[in-house]
Design brief:
The chain is α+β, with helices and mostly antiparallel strands. Helix content is about 25%, strand content about 35%. The protein folds into 2 domains: about 90 residues, Winged helix-like DNA-binding domain superfamily/Winged helix DNA-binding domain (Arc Repressor Mutant, subunit A); about 160 residues, 3-Layer(aba) Sandwich (Chorismate lyase). It has a 6-stranded antiparallel β-sheet with strand order 6-7-8-11-10-9. Helix 1 packs across helix 4 and helix 3 crosses helix 4. The protein is elongated and about 75 Å long.
Length: about 270
């Protein structure tokens, strides 16, 4: 945490209301020892207000525990109790020997029950996702595609590459491969939801997917995602089938780990 910081406080009323100035960010914390609200909860309220300021959202180190304790007139354990809670919620990030900062916000999450439409799921959450890059081309099937589609190695299959993001910020890169029998063309409209297009134009209905989810380095896909090739990404393989169990699509997804969380909701059977 920072070794020094601009600070000031003024006692303005008998209920011990302190006006706190931290790097020009004004916050008000009422420290009332007669209140039913514990001191650590009052400090927590101040910290929640503090960490949403632009300066700290941009990565500036927070003040040291001892400095906050002296400034607010509480013990270090009270400060630590409040910051521990925020850290457990994923709002703060501590690094030994460096200090505490606001944790990078993961703006997106998805669940297994929304595999059929990434864009639609984000829209339901109030997040508008744009296609930043789209490319359709025919490529020869490799051994993995040959095995999944049950076709000869080297047979042409359509590959669809899509980079999706919020604003100009990329969040996920997809590569989709389609079984040749479907007849998908390079000229098809891939701006609309994929499975909507397949159903309307090709009468293809998808009902099931098998998924493998792993962590890996971004590699060459890092360039698309604007991260280092050594940056960690969430890698997802998705194998999609029609009602008859026939393979439709092999989809590979590369999700930025600093922007994305994959959620699984599990309910125990009675």
């Amino acid at each position: 945490m920072l070794s020094s910081f601009k600070r000031s406080f003024n006692l303005v009323s008998p209920n011990q209301q302190y006006i706190v100035c931290l790097f020009g960010h004004m916050s008000i914390l009422k420290i009332n020892h007669n209140s039913k609200l514990p001191l650590h909860a009052q400090v927590e309220e101040l910290m929640r207000d503090l960490i949403i300021s632009p300066k700290y959202m941009n990565g500036t180190l927070l003040p040291k525990e001892v400095e906050l304790a002296n400034l607010l007139g509480v013990s270090r354990s009270t400060i630590r109790q409040a910051t521990n809670k925020l850290e457990n919620e994923g709002l703060l990030k501590r690094k030994k020997g460096v200090g505490t900062t606001v944790a990078p916000k993961k703006i997106l999450s998805t669940g297994l029950d929304h595999w059929y439409s990434f864009t639609q799921e984000m829209k339901e959450r109030g997040i508008e996702v744009q296609n930043l890059f789209i490319k359709a081309e025919f490529v020869p099937a490799d051994e993995n595609l040959s095995r999944f589609f049950k076709i000869n190695i080297g047979r042409d299959v359509l590959k669809l590459s899509k980079l999706k993001g919020v604003g100009k910020d990329p969040i996920v890169y997809f590569e989709s491969y389609f079984h040749p029998r479907i007849g998908v063309k390079k000229e098809d409209d891939f701006d609309i939801p994929l499975y909507t297009m397949l159903e309307k134009k090709y009468k293809i209905i998808v009902v099931r997917s098998n998924e493998n989810i792993t962590a890996r380095l971004a590699g060459k896909e890092g360039k698309m995602l604007k991260v280092s090739s050594n940056a960690p990404v969430l890698f997802r393989e998705r194998f999609v089938y029609d009602p008859g169990g026939r393979p439709i699509e092999c989809n590979l997804g590369y999700y930025r780990s600093d922007k994305f969380t994959y959620t699984i909701d599990i309910t125990k059977n009675s």
